[in-house]
Amino acid sequence: MYTGLKHLHVLLVALSVGLLILRAIWLMRGSALMQRKWVKIVPHVIDTALLAAAIGMVSMMPGLNQPWLWEKLVLVVLYIGFGFYLFKFAKSTGAQIAGLIGALACVATIAHLARSKMPFILG
Predict the structure, then answer these.
(1) What is the rounded CA–CA span in Å between residue 109 and residue 59?
(2) DSSP assignment of the chain
(3) Which is it for the CA torsion 64, 101, 48, 19, positive or negative?
(4) For residues 49 and 20, what is the distance between their CA atoms, to the nearest angstrom?
(5) Which stretches are transmembrane (predicted)?
(6) Helices 2-29 and 37-59: crossing angle, nearest 10°?
(7) How far apart are CA 22 and CA 12, in angstroms?
(8) Helices 93-116 and 2-29, interaxial angle, to 10°?
(9) Is 102 in contact with 82 (CB distance < 8 Å)?
(10) How many CB atoms lie within 10 A of CB 89?
């Protein structure tokens, strides 16, 4: 069961990040595709499923006293914040690129933590 949830989680991460990048490109190009209804709904559905899979995996773990897991949680909140900044507040292309880079840096760090289980700050 855990392995299935893990594979689903990784698939949802790939979809979430891929869609984030695609939407950021559309935003920076001023594409009318950003106004499509599915573009506004699908990311939330994917991210909700992603969160549900993560909660499912954590519920199967022997304890929550794992510093790397708490660092991942903080980085997920930062990822959401960078995405929110990118799509709601960043007005210039430079600011949008900065928001995208911040979000992707969070994802890269989360992936590293998931593989290594070695926290940066709390370790």
Answers:
(1) 22
(2) -HHHHHHHHHHHHHHHHHHHHHHHHHHHHT-GGGGSHHHHHHHHHHHHHHHHHHHHHHHTSS-S--HHHHHHHHHHHHHHHHHHIIIII--SHHHHHHHHHHHHHHHHHHHHHHHH---SS--
(3) negative
(4) 15
(5) 6-26, 38-62, 68-87, 94-114
(6) 150
(7) 15
(8) 170
(9) yes
(10) 10
- Cα separation, 93 vs 58, in Å, equals 37
Query: How many angstroms separate the CA atoms of 118 and 59, rounded?
Result: 20
Contacts of residue 34, Cβ cutoff 8 Å, sequence gap at least 6: 23, 26, 27
Q: Which amino acid is at 16?
A: S
Residue 83 and residue 103 in contact, taking contact as beta carbons nearer than 8 Å: yes
pTM exceeds 0.85, yes or no: yes
Length of the chain, please? 123
51: its two tokens: 């969160």
Q: Which of 12-21, 38-47, 64-73, 99-108 has the lowest mean pLDDT?
A: 64-73
What token pair was written down for 95?
């600011």
